[in-house]
Amino acid sequence: MSEAHPPNRDQAALWNDAGGRTWVEMQEVLDGMLAPLTAPLLEEAFPGEGGRVIDVGCGAGATALSMARRLGPAGLCLGVDISGPLVAAARARAAAEGLASAAFVQADAQTYGFEPGSFDAVISRFGVMFFDDPAAAFANIRRAMRRNAKLAFVAWRSPAENPFMTAAARAAAPLLPHLPAPDPDAPGQFGFADRDRVRRILDASGWTDVDIRPIDAPSGVAEKDLLSYVTRLGPVGLALRDVDEPTRARTAEAVRAAFDPYVRDGAARFTAACWLVTARAIYAGTPSREASDVDR
C-alpha cells in the first residue's frame, strides 16, 4: 500500500478523533463490561513471571495492566494501539499505579517494527478484528515472537449470537437511513465471526496449533450508564454526531427502549458470545521460509 494510502487509515482516523476520545470517557463502563473476558485470556497466554508480552489493540490499558501485574517487575507487557487518546489514558493509568512492567506505544500493529524474536506471548481483547490486511498483521506480530510463543485473543462471534451488541443499530435504523449496513468481511466488531476465516488468516500468517473455541461470558452495563453506552459508541454513536437534535432525541428514545428486555436489578445484563483463539509461533523472528512450506 502506498504512503498516500497507508494501511488502516480509516481506523486511525476514527480512533484518533471522537471515537478514541469517547472510549476514554467511557473507560470505566467498558472495563466493567469486558472484565469477565480478561481472566480466561490471561490464563491462556501467561508466560510466567518475568516474561514479555504484547497486547494488541490495548485500548485504555486494562488488559495490559492486568498482564503486567502478573509478569512482575522483571517482566514487560507492551500495549500497542493505533489511538493516541487511548494510549495516553493507558500510560496515565500505569503511571498512577507505578507499574513499571507496563509500557504503551501508539502504533499500527500491522506495520510496527517490533524487535524480532523478542516476546513470549501476544494477547488481545477485541483488538484484532480491525486490520485492513489481517494476515499481514498477524505475520508482523508473529515475527516479534520467540519460538513457541503463545497467541491468545478474544473476538466476537456472530451478530445473531450477540443480539445485545446489535440492538442499538436495529432500533436506530428506521430513524437513521444512512446508518451503514454491516459487512461481515470488513474490518469491524464482527470481522472475526467466521471461525474458518480466522483459521485461514492464522494459517497464512505462520501460526500453528490453532484452536478456536466458543466462550460465553455473563456481562452487563449499569442501568445508569446504559443510555450513554447505547448512544455514544458504535455505529449509532457515530451517526448521531451528525444529526439534528430532534432526530437525536427520537433515536435515543427508540434505542433505549430496545434494551428494556435486558434490564433487571439495576443493570442491562447479557451474554457475550465470543471466540477464544489460541495458537503458537513455530519459529522465532523472521522464518527462512513461508509457513506453508514448513507445514509440508
For the largest beta-sheet, the strand count, sense and barrel status come to: 8 strands, mixed
Individual helix count = 13
Note the overall shape. globular
Based on secondary structure, the structural category is alpha/beta
| Average pLDDT level | 91
Estimated radius of gyration: 19 Å
Query: Roughly how many Å apart are the termini?
Result: 30 Å
Beta-strand percent range: 15-25%
Helicity level: 40-55%
As residue ranges, the low-confidence spans are 287-296
Number-wise, the strands total 8
Which sequence of SSEs, written as H and E, runs from N to C? HHHHEHEHEEHEHHEHHHEEH
Note down, in words, how this protein is organized.
The chain has 296 residues and is α/β, with parallel strands linked by helices. 41% of the residues lie in helices and 23% in strands. It is built from 13 helices and 8 strands. Strands 1, 2, 3, 4, 5, 6, 7 and 8 form an 8-stranded mixed β-sheet that branches. The longest helix is centred in the first third of the chain and has 14 residues, at 84-97. The chain starts with 8 loop residues before the first helix and ends with a helix. The model is unreliable at 287-296 (pLDDT under 50).
